[in-house]
Design brief:
The chain has 260 residues and is α+β, with helices and mostly antiparallel strands. It is built from nine helices and eight strands.
Length: 260
């Protein structure tokens, strides 16, 4: 919450457990000014029920202690790999980009391909997953680690092509459908952050009291969840337009909104 600070002070930094399937916040934790996300995530996980659920976290949260916390609470994880786990990232990327390995996974059905049109461009996503990780030196360090995976994204626009690769470790058994859902579904939490910043202009809010700012953050998330479900005038109306329409005549829409 960028504007929630005085001079050189630090603004509220809030991490959120967001349900992609239901579109609402399961819980949140303000990161202590002397701490960081790595210590706050286990504290948040301790507060919520994740048994039987798949937890996805950005690369910053790819830590052995966090993986262990998820497994101890009987959840599963799909954790992104980047440079903060340099050796593991290199090992997984080299293995999954081997042409023979990719061809073998395609033949065995450990592969899925989707094609979408979005933002005037063609997006091709190819997912690979394998449980053949006995060769991985770091396997013993990650509680419950059963598979590794990759998303290969090809973007085609105006005759040009760009590729992006993302790599993951997971406690899931080989299940390409579930793995691809988890990877693709992680954008939902990024969408939530975008809506808070753009639709609700949270970063521009100058509420300085930390507790008051956190309370407003919770209220915005409630509103976001309701706006996702409620239909005003026509389907697929943008969040911004829904807010505007309701604000122009709250008495007309109040009962409809409260029913959610």
């Amino acid at each position: 919450m960028r504007s929630n600070k005085r001079k050189e002070g630090k603004p509220n930094h809030i991490i959120t457990a967001w349900s992609k399937e239901d579109g609402f916040s399961l819980g949140q934790k303000v990161v202590n000014t002397k701490s960081n996300e790595i210590t706050a995530i286990p504290e948040l996980l301790e507060k919520i029920r994740i048994k039987g659920q798949v937890v996805t976290i950005d690369a910053m949260g790819t830590q052995t202690a966090i993986a262990e916390k998820i497994r101890l609470k009987r959840g599963d994880y799909v954790l992104a790999l980047k440079e903060n786990q340099r050796t593991l990232h290199e090992d997984v990327s080299l293995y999954l980009n081997d042409a023979e390995i990719k061809e073998e996974l395609r033949k065995k059905g450990k592969y899925k391909k989707t094609i979408e049109k979005a933002h005037s461009q063609l997006e091709i996503r190819e997912y690979y997953q394998t449980k053949e990780i006995g060769w991985l030196p770091q396997k013993k360090d990650w509680k419950g680690l059963k598979s590794i995976g990759m998303e290969e994204k090809t973007i085609r626009k105006d005759g040009q092509e760009k590729k992006e690769f993302r790599y993951y470790i997971s406690s899931l058994n080989e299940d390409i459908e579930l793995f691809s859902r988890a990877v693709r579904g992680h954008w939902s939490v990024e969408s939530m952050h975008w809506q808070l910043d753009v639709t609700f202009k949270e970063d521009a809010n100058t509420t300085l009291d930390k507790q008051a700012a956190e309370n407003l953050n919770i209220i915005r998330k409630w509103c976001l969840s309701i706006l996702k479900m409620v239909e005003i005038f026509r389907p697929n109306l943008s969040m911004k337009k829904k807010r505007f329409v309701i604000s122009m005549n709250p008495a007309e829409f109040l009962e409809q909104v409260l029913n959610f």
